[in-house]
Amino acid sequence: MTKHHFGDTAVLLGRSLRHITRSLDTIITTTIMPIAFLLLFVYVFGGAIDTESDSYVNYLLPGILLITIASGISYTAFRLFLDMQSGIFERFQSMPIARSSVLWAHVLTSLVANLISLVVVVAVALLMGFRSGAGVLAWLAVAGILILLTLALTWIAVIPGLTAKSADGASAFSYPLIFLPFISSAFVPTDTMPGPVRAFAENQPVTSIVNAMRDLFTQQPVGTDIWAAVAWCLGILLVAYVLAMRTYRRRIS
Amino acid sequence: MTAQPVPAIRVQGLKKSYQQLPVLRGVDFDVARGSIFALLGSNGAGKTTVVKILSTLLAPDAGTANVAGFDVATQATGVRRSVSLTGQFAAVDEILTGRENLVLVARLRHLKNPGRTADDLLDRFSLTDAGARRVSTYSGGMRRRLDIAMSLIGNPPVIFLDEPTTGLDPQARIDVWQAVKKLAEQGTTVLLTTQYLDEAEQLADRIAILHEGRIIVNGTLAELRQMLPPAKVEYVEKQPTLEEVFLAIVGADGRAGDEARPTVDTDQ
Question: Where in the cell is it found (chain B) (predicted)?
């Protein structure tokens, strides 16, 4: 069975990548909200926000990239939900293929789709004046954090994708993830927040992930933030993976 | 009746409940190799549950099931190699083309020449012209034919068809029936669930009626007829059924309907 694992995953990955390339509009759709936030905060609210940063778009972009992923993975859940509904999932499960390759194909497709969305959003930010003097290594580190985060959030998305009763239910889980950056250092520095809110903001994963990327973009020493960011991503990834696999086994028993 | 040495499917004492609701309360039946076996029952009788257990998608609470010599609980891989499932809803990928769907399944079954397999099946199911089109543009009958074609890839010895003609028009139904008959002629064992009595009558070598979680009747059509009140001789004017009228008007073979189509105008 396992000797075909990679081959089967590759065949199924080819299938869902075709879904992406034949409905590129879904990628555009997932980038609309982060781009709208970008425009709104840079051109409307940004002038009134004091970030001690030379340009607000530079300050804002890391948080917007997080929102892009949170919005993108809702489509992963939706695609998985459609497969469950249409019966094609059952067809795959009743065939002599490596069972987990069905899930892995969706997860890798999510990674590809989100990377495309991220490139689109970064391109818009560049048009809006985002600049970074970061070197290749720093960009690679940013990419690494984003990939890790996409994988972690994708495995979270697998759970509603497998269990949802409706298409809305499959994607609704992502709303809290999209709004989590608002109570973090993503849009404004945490200094001005009242005590309990500030405590929450400074100790939730978004802040350390955003701070680490911001430091990488602005060539500041990343300090402990990057390790906290990586630890959060790996922790979420591990827990989500275990829960998703458990849900999967329960669904196909 | 002579006992078959090794039946293609043997089900014994199968039980399954969903939460508190018992769906199967001890189901037993055998299906002989190369035969068509119809599981007849109303909606919710548990037909789909039986098919899901036999195709390793669902674990039974009690009882055993053996398919093509493999136990569904302990030898699931062997079962999956030997069976093919056509579920209640056409399990086709809408975004891919018909040909891509076939190639996909052929690849997943690790066949040597997926492209040729796909082309052969497109031809066999009269889908060659539609092969390059996305499945989302197909009619219900075309989808169902593609669905069955996908199930035949790799020539599995046992095929499960769960309500294969639900929602099809009369012509598409006849197309499916012909495909099923052809399969059995080639030696494939077919387990078919249906709620249409005429479908079981048309196709099945043996018919079992699943009712309230048990098989209450199991026999050939002739045996089943004998259980009913004896045949009476009545003189009835034979009116054509609406189906016969429909098929006569649109062309009985479903394709050459444009030639010699009589015009029916009830106003005259």
Answer: Cell membrane
